[in-house]
Amino acid sequence: MRTSPSLLSLTIDSALLNLSNIADLSPLPDHIVLDLFLLPARTRYFLSSRHSTFESQLPLSFLPDVLRNSEIVLISETCTSLDYRVAISCFSEALYFGIELLFVFGKMSLAIRDDEIDIIIGAIRSDLTSFMNEWRPMFSRFHLIIVKDPDLKEELKIPEGFNLDVYEKSDIDRVVGSSTSVLFSGYACRYFGYLVSRKKYIISVDDDCLPARDPKGFVVDAVAQHITNLTTPATPFFFNTLYDPFTEGADFVRGYPFSLRSGVKCALSCGLWLNMADHDAPTQALKARQRNSRYVDAVMTVPAGSLVPISGINIAFDREVVGPALVPALKLAGEGKFRWETMEDIWSGLCVKVVCDHLGLGVKTGLPYVWRTDRGDPIASLKKEWEGVKLMEEVVPFFQSVRLPREATTVEDCVVEVAKAAKERLGSTDPVFARAAKAMLDWVNLWKSVGSISSSPAV
Amino acid sequence: MATVSPTPLLKDELDIVIPTIRNLDFLEMWRPFFQPYHLIIVQDGDPSKTIKVPEGFDYELYNRNDINRVLGPKASCISFKDSACRCFGYMVSKKKYIYTIDDDCFVAKDPSGKDINALEQHIKNLLCPSTPFFFNTLYDPYRDGADFVRGYPFSLREGVPTAVSHGLWLNIPDYDAPTQLVKPLERNTRYVDAIMTIPKGTLFPMCGMNLAFNRELIGPAMYFGLMGDGQPIGRYDDMWAGWCTKVICDHLGLGVKTGLPYIWHSKASNPFVNLKKEYKGIYWQEELIPFFQSVTLPKDCTTVQKCYIEISKQVKAKLGKVDDYFNKLADAMVTWIDAWDELNPSPSGIKSAELPNGATK
């Protein structure tokens, strides 16, 4: 039950919205500043200060510095003025004992503009009408790149009302040359989109996936969740038992070292799937009726040094940071048009993880979910192609043993090193690996000529 | 729908260890789940106080006098005025599995409103394998309705034995003092329906509030350190045990799981008191984490005890200079192992946790 707002409260409300633009709060009286921070916030801001030895008991002295570094301020919705004073006097007590505390109020994703995002869809099937219409509420704000599988003969059917660019075989041949265009057949066609995109964040889902619903029945905005994952830090160096500490209602647990709480940049976000989970053909064939109905409400960072099969069905990544590391490299001899008949994304994901571990970047897994429709027959796929399953016995130990040299400081260098190691150690095991190694080198070259931000788009 | 075989009760193979200083009223709520089991109650604080145990439970109770009587001079390794004393219960137990819980932890409800049988879930976790060598994005692959994902090598799908099951808490989350002070009203309301293996080589903060482990596989590593009265630090007992345990599990090829089950943590301790106990730990953990991350154990450490003694040597060598406390702790670690072996003599020739292939890092 609210009384009508006073001039002061309206001013404070609008100040809250513009807090990050206010460099110097020191002219404000203390009680106004405290009010500013203790209002139940309709909008929320976040404050993170690193290793600050607090020289004063009041927040005024450090806030201007913090704001100048473009950190954003958080007020916990439940923080009363008494608690805030208690928190501050805790610092003076801590100071008395001579400790430096990394004190983190909270963390939130930065506001991302729509024009920083590309949604890239590899069209393995020609009729995208229902797919696009189902995703319309989530996709229509953004620019889309649709890349048609060069092997697909039929015309693409795409509904109206989207801001998109479509690339077909002829475009791919023109941009990369027909000898290299073989990199982009099948599911790997989407990598062409990654190459020509000029946006920072890329989100990609398979064309047989639809928006999922959470346990409360609400439609999951997979785009928003991926962006949140990518724009909040990852924490690969120590496992947080309450999972993502940057999500609302969670934090770092007792025992988590303070020096590791600022985290690292998240380069890739791997989402999950309800209904048809991403199992391999033998598993799905064995459990023909199994469908994934478990909605696990968590995002977590995959720890550094730990490898993970990153499915390409529902991913997002920071193209600026890690683009060249997603490699369209491993093409199975019998590669087909169902995920059971491919391993290209798994190889690509292992490469990304190794590179991220080396460069101190993070990879997250968990939310968002998409709903993956029933398609295909695992037994038919199994009969046709299970080379991929066998190859993993070589692939995983290989990636587990890759050590990148200290001199590899860019993503491109790292990918080249992985390619060299693959050629050396796996090349003789199976020709598919020698081809993969070569494809990785071709990809890096392509990235340098076509893919880099500075060069003008080739289309 | 395939029928799922019921989880064995293991009532003769599992002890529940509860440290307490107050009372055990909380057991009433747990009665439907705990009554079949034997309880080991470790009474901390004033031994002349009588702790009332609710009727109908089968238990043994140890106060400080009992601890001194049982261990003699070795009792110096057991903390006083800190729930770390609970590890005495692990030592005197004769069972294969231990479940330990704090006396302010109650039965939680899952999202459907059903009471969670935490003990049953821990038993499930301990009885089925872990997968520390490759991360499964669908979490526990052995769970109903889940499995390994595409790309997971078949050779790794058998998993390894699970040594530890680390449960979580709804309501009052396990935050440190500074976080408690900033977010005193934050409650954990998120039920994350997953169990997962913590990958090999990754450390984590192990909370002792809702913890189960295979005593035969990893018991001697569950020493909760020197905390409380007369010690410069508190609230790092379970952390210390967790880091030692994880390093040893990684070395011996055992698994550590975290996630379900949830219990309901009802009581928030005083954040100022906590800050006083923790502040050295907050400092020291910056040294401790790199230490544990870089510990390597030689190939001939094939038992938990050998691994633990080796860690104690490295603690003395590398952490002694951080603070003299670590010299005392290293000695206490050795005392603990001596006491453990004395109370748990192994049948001739077979050490309880000897594994044929002591895998090295």
Automatic annotation (TrEMBL), chain A:
Keyword Nuclease carried by entry = no
The entry's keywords: Cell wall biogenesis/degradation, Golgi apparatus
Q: What is its main location?
A: Golgi
Quote the subcellular location field of this record: Golgi apparatus
Matching InterPro entries: RGP_fam
Question: What span is annotated as the signal peptide, if there is one?
Answer: none
Query: Carries keyword Cell wall biogenesis/degradation?
Result: yes
Query: What superkingdom does the record give?
Result: Eukaryota
User: Which family does the UniProt entry place this protein in?
Assistant: Belongs to the RGP family.
What protein does this entry describe? UDP-arabinopyranose mutase 5
Source organism per UniProt: Hibiscus sabdariffa (roselle)
From TrEMBL, chain B:
**What SUPFAM superfamilies does its record include?**
Nucleotide-diphospho-sugar transferases (SSF53448)
Pfam families named in the record: RGP
Q: For this protein, what is the EC number?
A: 5.4.99.30
Q: Does the keyword Isomerase apply?
A: yes
- Its EC top class is isomerase
Q: Which reaction does it catalyse?
A: UDP-beta-L-arabinofuranose = UDP-beta-L-arabinopyranose
The keyword Membrane is assigned to this record: no
Mainly resides where? Golgi
Q: What keywords tag this UniProt record?
A: Cell wall biogenesis/degradation, Glycoprotein, Golgi apparatus, Isomerase
Q: What does this protein do?
A: Probable UDP-L-arabinose mutase involved in the biosynthesis of cell wall non-cellulosic polysaccharides.
Q: Which family does it belong to?
A: Belongs to the RGP family.
Q: What is this protein called?
A: UDP-arabinopyranose mutase
The species this protein was found in: Hibiscus sabdariffa
